[in-house]
Amino acid sequence: MKKGDHLFLVDGSGFIFRAFHALPPLTRKSDGLPVGAVSGFCNMLWKLITNARDTSVGVTPTHLAVIFDYSSQTFRKELFPEYKANRSAPPEELVPQFGLIRQATVAFNLPCIETEGFEADDIIATYARQATEAGGDVTIISSDKDLMQLVTPCVHMYDSMKDKQIGIPEVIEKWGVPPEKMIDLQALTGDSIDNIPGVPGIGPKTAAQLLDEYGDLDTLLARAGEIKQAKRRENIIANADKARLSRTLVSLRTDVPLDMPLDGLVLEPQDGPKLIAFLKAMEFTTLTRRVAEVTGADASAVDPVEVTVEWGADAHGPDVGEGAAALPEPAKAGAVSAISAPAVSPDALTPASLAAARAATFKGAKIDTEAYETVRDSAALDRWIALARETGVVAFDTETTSLDPMQAELVGFSLAVADNTVDAAGTAVRACYVPLSHKSGRGDLLGGGLVEDQIPEREALARLKPLLEDTSVLKVAQNLKYDYLLMKRLGIEIAGFDDTMLLSYVLEAGTGSHGMDALSERWLGHTPIAYKEVAGSGKGAVTFDMVEIARATAYAAEDADVTLRLWHVLKPRLIAEGLATVYERLERPLVPVLARMEERGISVDRQILSRLSGELAQKAAAFEAEIYELAGETFNVGSPKQLGDILFGKMSLPGGSKTKTGQWSTSAQVLEDLAAAGHDLPRKIVDWRQLTKLKSTYTDALPGFIHPETKRVHTSYSLAATTTGRLSSSEPNLQNIPVRTAEGRKIRTAFIASPGHKLVSADYSQIELRVLAHVAEIPQLCRAFDEGIDIHAMTASEMFGVPVEGMPAEVRRRAKAINFGIIYGISAFGLANQLGIERSEAGEYIKRYFERFPGIRDYMDKTKAEAREKGYVETIFGRRAYYPEIRSSNPQVRAFNERAAINAPIQGSAADIIRRAMIRMEGALSHAGLGEKAKMLLQVHDELIFEVEDEAVEATLGVVTQTMENATRPSLEMKVPLKVDARAAHNWDEAH
DNA sequence: CCCCAACCGTA
DNA sequence: GTACGGTTGGGGG
């Protein structure tokens, strides 16, 4: 190395963590292997090698090395055993990427440097010193503050993520001291992440000020008595030794013995095929193409290299490049090694076999509900929190006074961690319950107060908050949205979580319940204590705060225990089934989004509903009188049984049909037919039913959902209720507010914006038909959507040869019914019912439709075959819907399942699309400066409702429309455009 | 008190 | 013909 040479030193270990946390969407290979950090690393290296001059570094390297940590056993650990002791295990998705990044380095023809007993930082310091002494310049590719002490006029750092060079001025700007004082500064402040003690109470600002005043640490310590602030003075004097120890720990060594001399770091030309083979194995298509272009290699002639994937605790190790195929023992495996014991033959180590082994281990493992700990004081709670940090995964569950998270008050919470101290036969999970506000059982003058020996809620929450908000500790919960919302109301935003309910839902939507009790039966062979066994049911029910603490502990801690076991079983299956992306992109991120929507609620005008209710009552009463007159007697009009007897018994009207229980059917369809045949009574029943339905379900019920404090209505969305991926809404259901009839729409006028705001409604136009056009690749449909043509008129025109211009409404209506029928997995029976025509005629229509659109029949046949073969169908984003009964020998059952299987990819893909839009929406609004002005409130399958400040309405309409219309991108480009209609008004009726 | 059937509101 | 949730009546325990 000589003057003019420029050495780049890449902090490989640092980059991995940085990339992992900075790159938001988790990137995975098609087999589920997480490769986000590897991708970031490769892109960064490629840019540095080919294009560093155009970055803010501004020079091209002549030498380059990538430096890694060898292991956690370093000289610092010998000096200070607690060094880095409270580091939690790396995130699960990160573990296999350590080895891959080393392999990437080799593929780039770059030296991969590591030395036993030293950290990457020391190696970097040593090379930087040597290079400077030889007259060269150095750029350290890292933004780690621990390396800033190395910055000199000849040594710069470079933050590749922010494309920002860090020199002396930048260090001073950031820390208030020049690089040569960074060591002293760090000695004073310490570092909680690396467990460097420092001086308590001294942060960067104070440290910089002190160093500015006294010059350096030694002077400061010598003259500490002069410090004016008493507390600070005592602190520094008392902790002088700690400061000196800290200084040694943060000082980087520049004398590390190096196997590779500086001249060995000369940047070699790229070996195109070698690099491409690796990039292909990682499925980095864009970078593969670029590398092929630049190196002149023929990418298509290169086979992907076999990569080594290590999931285990040794993934930090240096061994690279050899070994067998993927070995996805899930991360954190070490933590549960005691219970994931069953031997699996080495050649059977596939994701699927490992998932199966996990399932076998946990199935039937004994769960002892008497073995749980009741946490009575903060010291005990702190021990559990430390345990959670140590293992990196903790199950969390709250116990409250209500199923409604907006009303619920916290009573206690439970935690569970994997126990790696017991043998394979023992209990493998440890759990505890932390009671906070249990009351004594007696409600008389003496009792009813708080039970003794409970941690005060504020104190417990203060201790819990850092754990729950720390993304490096995974919180596992069942139906986390509930706990998320509850904790958010208490000032805690849970971050870094998994939800066992959602894991189950992604793995097997369509096969039964995803509730905890059902999952426990299914996967653990264990029946958890029933809630009603603890808190009673019906009239004898009490709120959980009245439950005796010992009993509460058994119940609550078991829930956390079971949840953690389920996670151990289900999470590996996600990888094995290739469903990690669905879970991580469509499911998990929606939890906080929905929680915030639920928390916001929507304003409902009580007066409007009350007035409507009165009107409906009057009108219904008038109908009742007429009904009794026509019937010749009074009866309960709301009783289909009594009504059937009147209509078909007493009055012996013709055309009655029976329900499957043998009752007379009084459905709207039957009554409409009778009305059309000239009978007066049925018409009046239909009208009466509409009015009473509106009254009982909407105008009377909705006010009861207005929250006493927020004065708004907070629905609850279920993420795991449908087979197709749609959400569902309940308590109240705001996804079935009337819209079709004028009378019904009046109810929508009661949903209003706050003063100074508008409601914005944005809905996808014909999204399911567009999805159909895309998945079945129907040219006419695609063209019609491209050109914005009326899709039902186009269908009618194709089928019946009628020109679109001047088409009779009835012809279009029939085509529209057929289009909907197609989406629903059409049958002649159903279409005939819908259109009121003969089944044979409906059959003709379908036949003609398939002649004009043969691609639709192909799609339907293909979907049915897929469902029969695999038991499930998939949406365009890979979500599965299972139909276990599709092979039923009962033709009706089978046909029903076939229609559902045809519908699911269409309905489900539309659901995926709006989910993506919702997940991005808050970010998009914030980006446009609307984060505080426009709030998403409701989702109704293809519609999103927002509440927006008046002045921000125009801007919001644009952002919302764009976000929704672009929701599939960049993952997927549809063959038809998505169209969104959006408008604003004071109430929901006018906005829709 | 619990559960089911019938009916009907939405996409 | 698909997917939901809520209300009511009514039967059984």
TrEMBL record:
It catalyses: DNA(n) + a 2'-deoxyribonucleoside 5'-triphosphate = DNA(n+1) + diphosphate. InterPro entries: 3'-5'_exonuclease_dom (IPR002562), 5-3_exonucl_a-hlix_arch_N (IPR020046), 5-3_exonuclease (IPR002421), 5-3_exonuclease_C_sf (IPR036279), DNA-dir_DNA_pol_A_CS (IPR019760), DNA-dir_DNA_pol_A_palm_dom (IPR001098), DNA/RNA_pol_sf (IPR043502), DNA_polI_H3TH (IPR020045). Residues 372-575 form the 3'-5' exonuclease domain. Single-chain monomer with multiple functions. The gene is polA. It comes from the Bacteria. Keywords: DNA damage, DNA repair, DNA replication, DNA-binding, DNA-directed DNA polymerase, Exonuclease, Hydrolase, Nuclease, Nucleotidyltransferase, Transferase. Residues 5-268 form the 5'-3' exonuclease domain. This is DNA polymerase I. Residues 744-952 form the DNA-directed DNA polymerase family A palm domain. Signal peptide: none annotated. PROSITE patterns: DNA_POLYMERASE_A. Its EC number is 2.7.7.7. The keyword tRNA processing does not apply. Pfam families: 5_3_exonuc (PF01367), 5_3_exonuc_N (PF02739), DNA_pol_A (PF00476), DNA_pol_A_exo1 (PF01612). Residues 392-576 form the Exonuclease domain. GO terms for biological process: DNA-templated DNA replication; double-strand break repair.
